[in-house]
């Protein structure tokens, strides 16, 4: 039986963080703050967050803040909710959310809500249910949900529900596992899951499991480790996770490890990256893999971090 090569993945993540000029680092340049969240959360649920110099990370994160209050993907980059959430999540991991000017950041995010309750990702106005989730999660972590119209935000998300029980990026758009996760998690955080048809959606989600045990994002697509998060966390939030074969999914994720250099790829024998390493280990956490700390399916942060930030424990 395969096992999770924790030591190899720690080394892989630390080297990715340090590397600057190779292909992956260049591709990742514009989303380095996302990469920090993916890498550091993976280390934390493997119990290895102490492996990084926290003050170095925090000062770099704060340098990514734009004068608008939002965060860019790297120093000097334009702000976007995608990176603003990652900044809040990284600070939460180190229990340093208080270094933020909470009202400045939350005003930036609240300013992106549109008349119809939807959210834009940045000042250029692109609307996507991903941004609804990111805005709601960010404001929940900052205890500033009162700065937006949650009722209208929920109403907009429900306007994106399809007849198959799934959700798309805008009203009428096709159901896709990534969007389903964002909508279900946003509804979970706002206590609105009663609007979801759990059997109909649960059926669409459990149909994502292919014979190799992996999960895909849409019918007829290839399985991909990152769907181990999008589909699995959605199934958990709607209490239908018993509708898939958890053992076969664990095996699929473990088969995607690079046993030599560490890291996890989207499917067996592909190139690894920090994105799929995070979603693979986070998926194993949702599958209660031994020795991995539990992660919250909606907040996408370790449960102990969510308890500390949300309940002040
Ligand atoms: C290597 O080519 C790419 C392609 C796209 C992107 S991206 O647009 O910035 N992005 C983040 C991402 C990061 C990495 C890593 N390291 C790798 C892939 C990947 N994808 C692409 C992907 C993953 N599974 C299948 N596909 C096709 C998702 C995408 C969208 C996304 C952004 C933030 C949060 C969730 C999802 C980056 C690299
Ligand atoms: Zn993927």
Which structural traits does this protein have?
313 residues, Prenyltrans, transferase, binds the ligand COc1ccc(S(=O)(=O)N2Cc3cc(C#N)ccc3N(Cc3cncn3C)C[C@H]2Cc2ccccc2)cc1, zinc, two-stranded antiparallel sheet, prenyltransferase
Describe this structure in words.
The protein is mostly helical. It has helices spanning 6-18, 23-28, 32-45, 54-63, 81-93, 102-110, 129-141, 150-158, 177-189, 198-206, 227-237, 246-254, 274-286, 303-311, and strands at residues 264-265, 272-273. The chain has a two-stranded antiparallel ribbon. A hairpin with a 6-residue loop joins strand 1 and strand 2. Helix 3 (32-45) packs parallel to helix 13 (274-286). The chain is globular, with a radius of gyration of 18 Å. The ligand COc1ccc(S(=O)(=O)N2Cc3cc(C#N)ccc3N(Cc3cncn3C)C[C@H]2Cc2ccccc2)cc1 binds at residues 27-28, 31, 34, 224, 226, 266, 273-275.
Précis, in short:
With 313 residues, the chain is mainly α. It has helices spanning 6-18, 23-28, 32-45, 54-63, 81-93, 102-110, 129-141, 150-158, 177-189, 198-206, 227-237, 246-254, 274-286, 303-311, and strands at residues 264-265, 272-273. 48% of the residues lie in helices and 1% in strands.
């Amino acid at each position: 039986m395969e096992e999770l090569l924790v030591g190899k993945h720690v080394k892989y993540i630390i080297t990715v963080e340090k590397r600057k000029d190779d292909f992956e680092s260049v591709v990742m340049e514009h989303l380095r703050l996302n990469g920090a969240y993916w890498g550091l959360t993976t280390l934390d649920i493997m119990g290895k967050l102490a492996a990084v110099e926290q003050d170095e990370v925090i000062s770099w994160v704060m340098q990514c803040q734009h004068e608008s209050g939002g965060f860019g993907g790297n120093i000097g980059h334009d702000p976007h909710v995608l990176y603003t959430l990652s900044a809040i999540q990284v600070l939460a991991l180190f229990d340093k959310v208080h270094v933020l000017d909470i009202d400045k950041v939350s005003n930036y995010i609240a300013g992106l809500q549109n008349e119809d309750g939807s959210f834009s990702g940045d000042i250029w106005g692109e609307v996507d249910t991903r941004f609804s989730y990111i805005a709601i999660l960010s404001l929940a972590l900052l205890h500033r949900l009162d700065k937006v119209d949650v009722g209208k935000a929920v109403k907009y998300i429900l306007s994106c529900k399809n007849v198959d029980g799934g959700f798309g990026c805008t009203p009428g758009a096709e159901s896709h596992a990534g969007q389903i996760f964002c909508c279900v998690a946003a509804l979970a955080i706002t206590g609105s899951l009663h609007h979801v048809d759990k059997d109909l959606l649960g059926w669409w989600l459990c149909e994502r499991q292919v014979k190799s045990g992996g999960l895909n994002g849409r019918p007829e697509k290839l399985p991909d480790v990152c769907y181990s998060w999008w589909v699995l966390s959605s199934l958990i939030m709607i209490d239908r996770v018993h509708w898939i074969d958890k053992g076969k999914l664990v095996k699929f994720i473990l088969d995607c490890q690079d046993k030599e250099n560490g890291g996890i790829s989207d499917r067996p024998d592909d190139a690894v990256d920090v994105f799929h390493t995070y979603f693979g280990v986070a998926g194993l956490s949702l599958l209660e893999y031994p020795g991995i700390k539990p992660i919250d399916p909606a907040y996408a942060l370790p449960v102990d971090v969510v308890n500390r930030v949300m309940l002040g424990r």
